[in-house]
Amino acid sequence: MTLGSLFDGIGGFPLAAINNGITPVWASEIEAFPIAVTKIRFPDMLHVGDITRLDGATLPPVDIITGGSPCQDLSIAGSRAGLMGERSGLFMEQIRIIREMRKADELQGRTNLAIRPRIMVWENVQGAFSSAGGEDFRAVLEETVRIADSTLSVPRPEDGRWRSAGCILGEQFSVAWRVLDARYWGVPQRRCRIFLIADFGGNSAPQILFEQDSLLGDTSAV
Questions:
Q1: Do 46 and 25 form a contact (C-beta atoms < 8 A)?
Q2: Average of pLDDT values for 179-183?
């Protein structure tokens, strides 16, 4: 399996990929220091530059696209501009690139499970649940499921509050999210983040995110 990393930073997702037998093919990052770090750590990984200037149809196609879009506009410590903010709104660039890559694969004759990327991973702060009164996380879910089926809509919970874990299962796709705390993975501080996984070709998203074997690196369910 192969991976493309958007908002790459110092290569957290590529490192996780290598540790689980996945090859990081390219990364998008604009800051000089993180790029210098990842060029040393992952010398074979291509650097493709500014996400706003990328065309998913011309990027090397990959099985998985990851991204932790900027959180400043979603964080409770930030401006709370939400997905309308200049930085956190870059999430839509991740959606655009995935759509473009999948469309290019379809035009090349690929179908169903063979269309790339099949898997999307999105990471962000817990403030995304409450940003814009919960509307921003609803929009994240809706834009994600519409990659698989453009006719779908995602309603907000009846009480208006998003739970820390959940999933959406379609006929041929799945989306799951869960809050994970880095202190349980060797980091000496409490650092909670939302992790959202989408499988655009099957129902493996909850298996990847919730089942023990998958968390330990079993990609056979994908």
A1: yes
A2: 93
